[in-house]
Amino acid sequence: MGARETVEVTGHLMDSGILSRVLDDIREYGGDFVIEEFDVGHEAHDPSSARITVEAPDEESLQRLLMRLQTRGVNQLSHDDAGVTTADRDGVLPDGFYATTNLDTRVRLGGRWYDVQNPEMDCGLVVEESGSGDRRVRTVPMSDVARGMRIVVGAAGIQVSVPGPAPAVEAAMSFDADHGPERPQTVLVRQVADGMRQSRKDGKRLLWVAGPGLVHAGGVPAMTALVRAGWVDVLFAGNAVAALDIATALYGPTPETDTRPGHEHGHEHRVRAVNTIRGAGSIAGAVRDGVLRSGMMHALVTAGKRFVLVGSVRDDGPLPEVHTDVVEGQRAMRAEIHDIGYCLMMATQLYAVATGSLLPASVPLVCVDINPATVTRLADRGTGQGRGIVTDVGLFLEQLALELVADYRRG
Amino acid sequence: MGARETVEVTGHLMDSGILSRVLDDIREYGGDFVIEEFDVGHEAHDPSSARITVEAPDEESLQRLLMRLQTRGVNQLSHDDAGVTTADRDGVLPDGFYATTNLDTRVRLGGRWYDVQNPEMDCGLVVEESGSGDRRVRTVPMSDVARGMRIVVGAAGIQVSVPGPAPAVEAAMSFDADHGPERPQTVLVRQVADGMRQSRKDGKRLLWVAGPGLVHAGGVPAMTALVRAGWVDVLFAGNAVAALDIATALYGPTPETDTRPGHEHGHEHRVRAVNTIRGAGSIAGAVRDGVLRSGMMHALVTAGKRFVLVGSVRDDGPLPEVHTDVVEGQRAMRAEIHDIGYCLMMATQLYAVATGSLLPASVPLVCVDINPATVTRLADRGTGQGRGIVTDVGLFLEQLALELVADYRRG
Amino acid sequence: MGARETVEVTGHLMDSGILSRVLDDIREYGGDFVIEEFDVGHEAHDPSSARITVEAPDEESLQRLLMRLQTRGVNQLSHDDAGVTTADRDGVLPDGFYATTNLDTRVRLGGRWYDVQNPEMDCGLVVEESGSGDRRVRTVPMSDVARGMRIVVGAAGIQVSVPGPAPAVEAAMSFDADHGPERPQTVLVRQVADGMRQSRKDGKRLLWVAGPGLVHAGGVPAMTALVRAGWVDVLFAGNAVAALDIATALYGPTPETDTRPGHEHGHEHRVRAVNTIRGAGSIAGAVRDGVLRSGMMHALVTAGKRFVLVGSVRDDGPLPEVHTDVVEGQRAMRAEIHDIGYCLMMATQLYAVATGSLLPASVPLVCVDINPATVTRLADRGTGQGRGIVTDVGLFLEQLALELVADYRRG
Amino acid sequence: MGARETVEVTGHLMDSGILSRVLDDIREYGGDFVIEEFDVGHEAHDPSSARITVEAPDEESLQRLLMRLQTRGVNQLSHDDAGVTTADRDGVLPDGFYATTNLDTRVRLGGRWYDVQNPEMDCGLVVEESGSGDRRVRTVPMSDVARGMRIVVGAAGIQVSVPGPAPAVEAAMSFDADHGPERPQTVLVRQVADGMRQSRKDGKRLLWVAGPGLVHAGGVPAMTALVRAGWVDVLFAGNAVAALDIATALYGPTPETDTRPGHEHGHEHRVRAVNTIRGAGSIAGAVRDGVLRSGMMHALVTAGKRFVLVGSVRDDGPLPEVHTDVVEGQRAMRAEIHDIGYCLMMATQLYAVATGSLLPASVPLVCVDINPATVTRLADRGTGQGRGIVTDVGLFLEQLALELVADYRRG
C-alpha cells in the first residue's frame, strides 16, 4: 500500500449505517483502513465521530476513494488547498477531475473556503475569478466545459456535508433497497453449485423447496437430472407442483403446450392426473405399478429420496401423499429438517416462508424466483441468513444442471 | 380421425372471442373441425350461432375435447342421456368422469334435464335418487366421493350455459391476459436462434436493441461472442449501456462488482469512462488508439458493425457518438432500418418502443426483459407483430450464445 | 348516423380475433355496422371473409374510423383515388392527414396503386413526383414535413395488408395482453360500489376474501367501517390476516409501525396475539371476554357476520377458529357459498384462487391487488367471469368506504 | 423508565449494520439506551464489542425488548437462570413465554447452560427432565404444547449466537430490502401534504416530475385542481405525458376510454393532438387561441406556471415546447432548480432519475409509482435523500387533492 490519508466523519454513525457503508467503499476500492479514534456518544441522541486512516494501492486510487468517501460526508483532516488544472479541450474534463455529488460542498483555495453554488451530481467544479479578484466555484456539466476553464482535480481541499435524514415521509421506503434483477447470474449459479458441493462433501443433506413455476418454466428435465445425480435429498412442496409434474408425465406436453402452457388445458389434465394417482393409492404406488414413468416425482421415488407434500386451500384432490392438515404437515417437514447442509427454494413463496421458519439460521438458504416480491417476502419472517436471486427459474436450473451433472445435455 | 360429434354454440361469437378460443381448444386436443353452418347476426347487437362438427383421434380424446368445449358454452346437438357409472372406491372418481366447470349445468337422465345444484369447478357429478324416485344431480369434490355413488361419465347429455359479460367493472382488466413468466425458456431460446439463422440465410440484417440491464445481468461476454460471430449487424442503444460497457472494459469489475454491481461505484466509473472517451474524440477513436480494448462496443467497432446511440434526458456526458437531438437520433435509426430480417430487444423499454414504431410490421421482433411490464408496454404502440419473453437477460444471452456460437464457453 | 362506407376483410377472422377487434374499434369510435356478407371457410384452414357496412356520426369520424380499421387489415371496397393536400407549414401535417401504420401499404393515385416505401408508424404519407412524371409515396415523420409537400388525407384510396402470424417464437406471449396498472381507478371504485349496492338490493350476500396486505396497507379502519355498515356478509381468509389484525388491535401500532410496518416486530406481536386468543378459546370468546376490542375480526364478531379461516403451511399457532385441515376448510367455505351476489378479493392470491374455484361463474367477482401477477393468476384456474384491478389496496378501501359508508371520515 | 438491563454484543458491529438495527429495535419498543463501553477494532478485520444499558417503560416491555435484541445476537450480561413456568392448557403457551428464533440458543438452568435442540422460529422452549435427572431443552410449536409442560418465560438466562455472513452467494441480494407495497398509504399522503405545506410556508417552490401514467391512472382532475390551487410551481416532463393530457383535453374520453384507456385509439389521438398543437405554434399559443381548453397543461399555462419538456427517442412530433436536444433540455431543467423546497415525482423513471441528478441533496424528494422497480431505481444514482412510495398514482393524487385543495370534490 503506497498512499494513505487520514479522514474524519461525525454524525449518527452506527445508527445511520454510514460507517458500515464507508467500510464497504474502502473494500470496493481495494483499500484498507485503521480506525485511529472512535468517540461514540453515550446517550441515545449523541453524535459519534471517528478518525480513520485510509490506505490505497496508489495515489490515483486513493484520490478516487477519497472522492467516493466524500459522498458519505467523510472529509480529509488535512487542510490543503484544492488542486486546480486548466481544461485543454471543450467538452472534456481534465484527468483526475473531482466528480461532484449533490451534497453541500466547500472548496479551499488560497487558504479560504468557498461554497459551491448549485451542487449537482456528476459534474466538474470550475473556479472562476472576476477582474476584481473575487472567486467563485460552481459545478459544470461535462458538455459545458470550455477550453481554458480552471477545473478542480483530486479530493484534497474539498469538504462536503451530508444532510440529516429528510424530515418528511421519513418512515417510507428508503431508496437504498438493493433490488437488483440485474446480476451476473452465471456467477450466482456457480456459487450455488459450490455451496451444494460443499454441503455434500460435509455429509449433509440437500433440501429443495419448489413451487409450480418450476414445471411451467420448463425446469423438469434439469430437475430430474439433478435428482438422479444425487443433488436432491429432500423436497418440500405442495399439491400443485406434484400434480402438474405428474400431469405432464401422464399426458405429455402437446406440441402447443411445449411452448405455451395452455393453463386451462393443463388444469383439466391436473384434475385427471390427481384422480389417477388416487386410484393407484399413492405416487409411490403409481410408480411401482408402471402408471407413472417419468418426471420429477417419479425420479424422487425411484431414487429413494424423501418428499413432504403439504396441502393448501386451493388444492384439487389432493394427491394421496399430501398432508391435508397443515399442522401435521409442519410436523412432517420438521421431521426432515435434521442434517440439512444447504437449502434451495424455487418459484414458491408459501413453502419458502414455511421452511424458512423451521430451518436453523445456520443452514445456508437461497431463494430463486423471477418475482422480486417473492424473494424479498422472506424478510418478513426474519430468516436473515437467506439470500435471494431474482432470475428465471427454468434457465437457472438448466445452468445448475450443466454445472453439477457431468453428462447433462440440454433438453 | 375416428370419432366425431356435432356441437352448437350461440351468442356474440366473434365479438366475445369465444369462437376463436373454441378453435384453439380443438387444435390443442389434436382435433379438427368443419363449420357446418354459421349464422351471423346482421345488426351490431344480433347474436350469431354456429354448428360445428368436431373430430378427434379417438373416442376418449373426443369426450375430453367435448367436455373442454363445454367450458365455452358449446353443447352437443344430440340429446342422449348422460352416462353414469358407479364409484368403486372412496375418494376416487371413475375413469372418464365428467370434470365440472363453475357454469350453470344441466344433465339429461331418463329423457329429462336436471339442473346441477351448486356448480363448482373441478368436481365430479353425482346422481342421487330418493326413495320416492326423485332425482337430483350435484357436484362432488374428489375427496368426498364415496364408494357406490353414481357418477356422470363422458360429455354426452350435458349442457352448460355461459353467462353474459359481468355488468360490473366491465371495462377493467380481463383475467384472460397471458402474463406468463412461466415458459419453457430453453425452447424459446432455440426459436430465437432459428429466427436469426433464417434471417441470415435470407441475406437480411440482424438488429439488436439493448439497455443497461444487459451489462448488469452479466451479458457482455455472450454479447461480445455473438458480435464476433456475426450475429449482430446493427445495435440501437442509449448512452447508458454503452457507458456502462466501456466503464467495465476500462476499470474492470473488482472482485465485488463481479457479483454485486455496486451501482454507485460503477456510476463514478461511468462518468470517468465517458470523459475518457470524450477525450479520445470518439468510441471508434478510443478503440483505434488502444484506449478501449474489450467489451461490447469494442467488439462492434473492431467487427465493423453499425451502432446508433441516441441520448436521453438522464445522460451523463454523453459519449461522443451519441445523438443528443432525439429527432436527429430517430433519423439516424431510420437510416439503418433497411433490410432488417430480425430484431431482438433486450432490457430496454425506451429504445424498444422507439424501434417498434420505426420497424415495418413484417419484421419479426422479440423483446426480452425480466420485467413483464416492459414486455407488455410495447402493446401501447400497436407493434402487434412483436413477441415478448419474460426472462433473465443474462441467462438468455448465455443460452443464445451456446446455441449460435460454435466454440462458446461460458465465462 | 350520417356517413357510411363499405369495407372488406379477408383472413382467419374468427381464429385470429381480428373480427372481434374490428367490432370493438367501431364501438370505440361511436360507430355502428351491418355485416353484409360473411363467408366462413368450412374446413379448419380455410380463410373467411366479410363485407361490412360501417357507419359513423359524421364524415370526419368515419374517415378516422376507416383509418383505424386499416390497422386491422380492413380496406374500403370502393377504389377511389386517395385525397392529397399541400402542407402549408414546415413541421405540421395538414388537417385530416392519413396517420400511417407500420403495415405494408398501397395508395391509389390516378387510378394506379403505389406501394409505400419504408412503412413506419405515426407518420404522414408524402407523394413525390419526379420531373419525368414518376410518382412515389413514402412516409414522412411530422418533424420532417416541409411546406409544399403533397400529403395524403383521409382513408380513401389506401389499402394495407396485415401479415400472418410471425413464424418465430409464435407461442410466446403476445403483446396484446392488457395489463394496465394505469386505469382511472376512481371510476373502478364506483363500479365496485354499484355492484355491491345492486347485490344488496337483490337480497344477496356479499363475500370478501382478504390477505394480510389489507392490514399492512392500512385498510383496517375502512374495512371495519364497511363491516359495521353491513357491506360484508362473509369473509374468507387465512390465519395470517386475522392474526395480524388481532395483533394490531391488542398491541396497537407504535408511532413507527404507523408508517413502517416493522415486519419483524409485528411478527413477534402476531405470535403472542395468536397465543392470547388460543388462551381465550376462540376469537369470539376473546371478544366476549373483552380481550379483543377493535379491528376487523372484532367488527365481524360483534356484527354477527360469518367468517371462514383456513390454514396454510406457513401458519403460526394457528388461531382457534382456523381449519387446519384444508379439505375441511374447503367444505366450510363451500357451505357459505350460497346466495352470494358479489365477491371482492383483496391482497390475496391463495384464497382468491381457492374461492374462484368454488364460486359459480354467475357471481360477479373482482380481485384487487397491487401486484399484477396476483390479479392475472386467477386466469390459470379458468375463473373467466372475474375482473382484476391493479391498485393500492389501502387507498382502494379508503375510497370504497367514502362511497358506501355515509359518515365515513378518514382515519 | 422503570426497567433496565445491561447487554453485550460482539462482532463486526458497524460493518454488518447490526448495531444500527439494535438501536432501531430499542426505539421501536419505546426504550432508551446508554452505551457503557465500545471497543472498536483498530484493524479492518478486528471485531468490535459493545456493552449497552437498555431501558424500557416497564418490566414486561423490557423482557420483550430483550427477547427481540437476542435475534441480533445481543445477550444479557447477567448470568441468572432462565425462568420456567408450567403450561396449564394444551396448545397454549404461558404468558410471557420466550418466543424462539432460529438461531443457535443456550438456556441456563441450575447454573448450567443447555443447548436448545433443533432451533426453530416462533416456538416456545420446553424443559424436559428424564427420570435420571438429565435435562434437555427443545423448541415446541404452540400447537404441540401439552398441559404440564415446563416452559421458559422471559429473556433471562438465554444466550443466542448470530452466525457470520453465509459464505455462499454472499454478494447476492440480501433479504433485508424493505420493499413494501404494504404501507398505510393514507398516512404517507398526509406526510407529503405536510412537506409541501412547509415548503410553501418557507417561500420555496414546488417541483413536480410526471410521466404518462399520471394521465392513464386518471390523475388529471386532481392534478389540475392542485395546479390551480398553487401547489405546482414547476413541472418537468416528457413529450408523452403532455401529448396524452392534451389529446384527452381535445378529443375527450369516450365512454369506453373512461374506464379502459384503449391505448391504440388514444395513440392515434395523441399523434393528431401533437400535430394540432404544432399547427398552433405552441401549447401556450393553443391555450391563447382557445384550441386547448382543459387539462393539466392548460392549467399550467393559465396559472402562469413553469414547465420544462424534454424529448426522448420514442417521441411523436414532438410538441413545440419540447427540447429535442437532451443536453439543452438538461440546461433548461437546471435553470429551474433554484429555490425548490420540495420535489414530487410521479409515474416516471427517466425524468425522475434525471431530476434526481440535478437536485441538491438538501431538497426533500418523494417518488410515487405503482412499480417498485421504478421507485428503487433512483438508488442507482445515489440520490440518497429521496423517499419512495409504491402505490397507485391516481388514487394518491386523489387523496392529496382532498388534503390540500379545500373544495376539491372527486371527479
UniProtKB/TrEMBL annotation, chains A, B, C, D:
The keyword Thylakoid is assigned to this record: no
Keyword NAD: yes
All residue ranges annotated as the Arginine dihydrolase ArgZ/ArgE-like C-terminal first subdomain domain in the record: 105-188
Matches recorded under InterPro entries: ArgZ/ArgE-like_C_1st, ArgZ/ArgE-like_C_2nd, LOR/SDH_bifunc_enz_cons_dom, LOR/SDH_bifunc_enz_cons_dom_sf
Gene3D superfamilies: LOR/SDH bifunctional enzyme, conserved domain, putative lor/sdh protein like domains
Domain Arginine dihydrolase ArgZ/ArgE-like C-terminal second subdomain: 191-400
Superkingdom, natural source: Bacteria
Keywords assigned by UniProt, alphabetized: NAD
Annotated protein name in UniProt: TIGR00300 family protein
Domain LOR/SDH bifunctional enzyme conserved: 5-102
